[in-house]
Amino acid sequence: MEKTLPKSVFQKFRQQQRGRTSLDRATADAIAHAVRVWAMDHGATHYTHWFQPQTDTTAEKHDAFLDIKSSIINGIKTTVAIDSFSGSQLLQAEPDASSFPHGGIRSTFEARGYTVWDTTSPLFIQDGPHGTAVLYIPCVFISYNGEALDEKTVLLRSNEAISNAAVRLLHMIGDTEVRNVHTTLGVEQEFFLIDRGLYSLRPDLKICGRTLVGSIPPKHQQLEDHYFGQIPSRVLATIAETEIELYKLGVPMKTRHNEVAPAQFEMAPIFEESAVAVDHNLLTMQILHRVAHRHKLKCLFHEKPFKGINGSGKHCNWSICTDAGENLLDPSVKPESNPRFLLFFVATVYAVYKHGTLLRAGIATASNEHRLGANEAPPGIISVFLGDQLNEVLNAVEEQRELKSFSQHQIQSVKVGGTVLDLKVATLPPISRDLTDRNRTSPFAFTGNKFEFRAVGSKQSPSFPVTLLNAAVTEALLEITSVLEEVKGDKPKASLEDVLTVVRMYIKKSKPIRFEGDNYSQEWVEEAGRRGIENITSCPEAFKKLLEHQNLLTETVPILTMAELHCRYQVMVERYIKDLVIEGNTLKTLINQYVLPAAFDYRKEIASTLVSLKNVGMDINNIPEKMILEELGKDTDELIKLNDKLCEILERVVKITDLDQAALVAHNEIFTIMEDIRKYTDSIETKVSSKCWLLPSYSELLF
Ligand code: ADP
Ligand code: MG
């Protein structure tokens, strides 16, 4: 834009981007013209307002740059096709909003919604068919009355809130040159890639994104030989092509590797400003999905596609950065006397202490429930991991003593990122050690110069989880600022001593949320209980927490109106119920069309074997075939009973009009009975001949 726009227009655009002015008509038209010329030079025939409804994905409606113009030339009416794109078309569009989730915020007859250009996120062009392309305009999506219907509006509001709060605090400690701050986000995306032919033979994967039946093969991830192993060639081809497609869109992909489970992988970009990083994560998922298709693979983003095997997460690496590019969570050489670091670090820990259950609400989905409730990464208890050295820093500050573990030698080498380790091999160079070790079990870990929110679902948009984190930290900053203001008195700026006094108070307050041990252990569940930290294992429980924090979200850090908050709650609960009902119905079909017929076929086969054996005079009473037949009989009887019960629950749940009640039934009954049913379907799978079992097995899907 700087290259193509007249200087004055570009300056006005930059002013608008920083929230200082709005675009006047002439400026908008000038920008639209330049944008169209650029896009058409790259083959674009259409443009689209691209936005993020509350569906964890994006929405777009294409319009051509085409217009028709009639004029009278020498008395003859002439009609010509022209290219056109006005400033108002760039800035705003009006899609029919009635079919997007709105949580009852408006009735269906008030269908109007508006998309408005979010100038903070770059425009991009995606290839279309036959050498054409489409111009994408990142947008927010609001209702006729200006209520947020999307994921982005609230994220932007939370970014602004945290910026204002952080700047106030920074000014109080004398950092008066900072004018705004932004949150940064680097999203590690985990996913499975499986053969598309096999995938298409599994109705459960196609409809629900996860397997509802399937016995676990003898070997899966026990040997841990897949993690960081050589990337299989078809997968590498897919990922590499995805990266190239993403580079074209400006998404800075950086890392790729095998994950723990067989057929599981991860990609991660270089971090960016959080709203842009969210756009880019959604694009990453879409492009990966599309490119995998070309390589005859299917990409599964579900949190738990395979029972008994590690699930996928989305690790949201998060920090706060000033307009001068300084990371406020960088501990620097002497974190213990770095007021900036201490304040922002402790504010984040305190935010999680105070609003951990809110963070838990933001990651509650039917699919993530399989990870968060189960004995697997991470648990339903939100705690913070700091690592040895930062724990020691906080303890030393709290106890007003010198740091224990930093020898002079160590302090020197912290400058290059940590302490020095001696490998006792002369040919290897000395290596520096990071300030924190890793704790893979923690849902919220400090990793050197950023926090890593690990409990976010692989399938969900990172937007709302980050929004809630921003809101929680904003409140902590506001509170800390007002306490610091008092402690500082009428001095022009707070001294290091003032800061330490306040930081000490908040270290003490937030102590219960700090946990360095194994988050998967039963001891932690008990210990957390003693500390008063909630263990939220079900979605209906988690959703409620959103409403319990309404003061924070609608008043202290007003990023939602009360109506918007209730809308969000309703969308989440409705989605949960629908997801479980769809799963229940899919399982019912699988049982009727695949599992029972397999059992019956095999039974018939054994029965006729038995008849033949009997006919040749064998005693068939104690032979293995007979036993299998009997066991299969027991399994099918139980399965039929449970299936009938499932059908009954499914019929009942859709009739319940009270949403909260329906969600409870979905969780307590559908979720539970599906687990019970699985015992019998999987038992049948291991008994019948593979000839009778038409669903591709776990071994076939994963290896
Ligand atoms: P890990 O070793 O935790 O798996 P990765 O290299 O896979 O780490 O991913 C770490 C992610 O954290 C990357 O996306 C990286 O860009 C991001 N990151 C690094 N520093 C910051 C920061 N200051 N703010 C936000 N994200 C960051
Ligand atoms: Mg990683």
Automatic annotation (TrEMBL):
- Which keywords annotate this record? Kinase, Transferase
Q: Which residues form the GS beta-grasp domain?
A: 45-146
Protein's UniProt keywords contain Kinase: yes
Q: Which Pfam families match?
A: Gln-synt_C, Gln-synt_C-ter, GSIII_N
Q: Which residues form the GS catalytic domain?
A: 151-595
| SUPFAM superfamilies the UniProt entry points to | Glutamine synthetase/guanido kinase
Molecular-function GO terms, alphabetical: glutamine synthetase activity; kinase activity
GO BP annotation list: glutamine biosynthetic process
Question: Into which family does the record put it?
Answer: Belongs to the glutamine synthetase family.
User: What name does UniProt use for this protein?
Assistant: Glutamine synthetase/guanido kinase
